[in-house]
Structures are given as C-alpha cells and as structure tokens.
Amino acid sequence: MAGALARLGLRGDVREMPESTRSAAEAAEALGCDVAQILKSLVFRAVREDAPVLVLASGADRVDEAKLAIVVGDDVERASGAFVRARTGYAIGGVPPVGHDDAIAVYMDERVLAHEHVWAAAGTPRSVFTVSPADLVRATGATVVDVADA
After folding, report:
1. Is 0.85 surpassed by the pTM of this model?
2. Which residue from 42, 74, 83, 108 has the highest number of Cβ atoms inside 10 Å of its Cβ?
C-alpha cells in the first residue's frame, strides 16, 4: 500500500495495528480517535451496469442507498464479499480508498471534508493510513456528494 500511496503523491503513514480495525468502531478504539475520523471505504454494486461504486464516508455515518442511487443514476445494492474481492482486489474490512485492481467510480460524502485528516484501511483488516480528505479527493478523482443518512 505504501507504494500506491507514494505513486499518488500521498504521504500516508501506513500502520499495522495489533488488533482488528475491520469496523469503524474497532479502528477508532485502536487509534484513540473519534469514530468520525475513520474513513469507511464501502463498495456498492450499480445493478444495471453490474459495476462497482466506492463510497468514502465517515465512520460515524451510514450511507443512504436511495441518495447514492440518484447520484450514480442506477439502482445500487451493498456488494457481496465475492464481488468486492473480484472488483477491488481486497476483502471487506480492508478495502482502501486507492490501489484497486480496476478503475472504479469513487464518491466521497461531504461530511468527510470536515476533518483535517482521516484514517483509512490500507489493504488488510489490521492496517490503516492517515490522509487529508482534500488530498484523497485529488488522488482518487472522487466526486464529493451528500449521501449520508440524515
């Protein structure tokens, strides 16, 4: 992951944690930060296109699938573990916001931008890195949207 970050001009410090950081709550506890500073990388499936959609959201928020469907222009559903692995190269719980096997549409919920930095998965359920949301938008080409559940 460190190589992918460097290629994108991101200076994220990758940390291997002694305990699982698979959930936002686990990651926040392990890092000693607020759960809102944990960046969830959630993969959805655009139904008609059978395409992956990556949503970057605060660990404190849930994604409203109806709002996401409007943004994407297609019905969406939570992707299965097999779909996530096949389309990103990573397992659920360790999906990073960058470094996927194939190009993927990326959306960042606007609430993430309220933080100076966030912690994101770095490819495994025990590894994380820190990054500024603005740098992540530039590196991923993410579209900033409002998809959090109100």
Report:
1. yes
2. 108
